[in-house]
Amino acid sequence: MLDAANRIATLARVHDQLYLDPGARDLSLRDYVAGLAADLAQALNVRVSTHDRLDEGHRVSPGQAAAIGQILAELIGNAAKHGHPGHHPSMELTLEQQGRQLRLSLVDDGPGQPEGFDPDHSSGLGMQICLIYARQMDGRLDHGAGPEGGARFDVTLRLDDGIAA
Prior knowledge:
Order of helices and strands: HEHEEHEEHEE
Keywords: Kinase, Transferase
Protein name: Sensor histidine kinase
CATH superfamily: Histidine kinase-like ATPase, C-terminal domain
Distance between the termini: 37 Å
Strand order of the largest sheet: 2-4-5-7-6
InterPro entries: HATPase_C_sf, HATPase_dom, His_kinase_dom, Sig_transdc_His_kin_sub2_dim/P
GO molecular function, one term: kinase activity
Shape: globular
């Protein structure tokens, strides 16, 4: 049930940001991701540190914002769900941009991924959502161990050409 609530809240954030500025056709990527990460951290009782190396003023379409938001909500939600029992997980979210490529990296301090974990063969709806959105945006999802043993997910996406930075 919490997963469904997070998915709805992610779409609501896109709607709210567009509603605040009815003339807007796009959203600030930096503001959107920072706000979403803060909302998810509070809702899930986790810590998410956000670092970005984005071009100043980069904007994305509502559709891309929703896709990016769903990916982040799933990855942050999974880290919270699969962390150490009784421990409030900490995560580090890094966003980097090179031209029209966006790279999102999420590293957590949990127990890491199970032996043989493969997102392409995961039965979980959340991981399938991440893969679908990544592929729709000509991207990919990579995974592995974080530097201190937790899980690491790297999502690379192609941003729309029509929105100026």
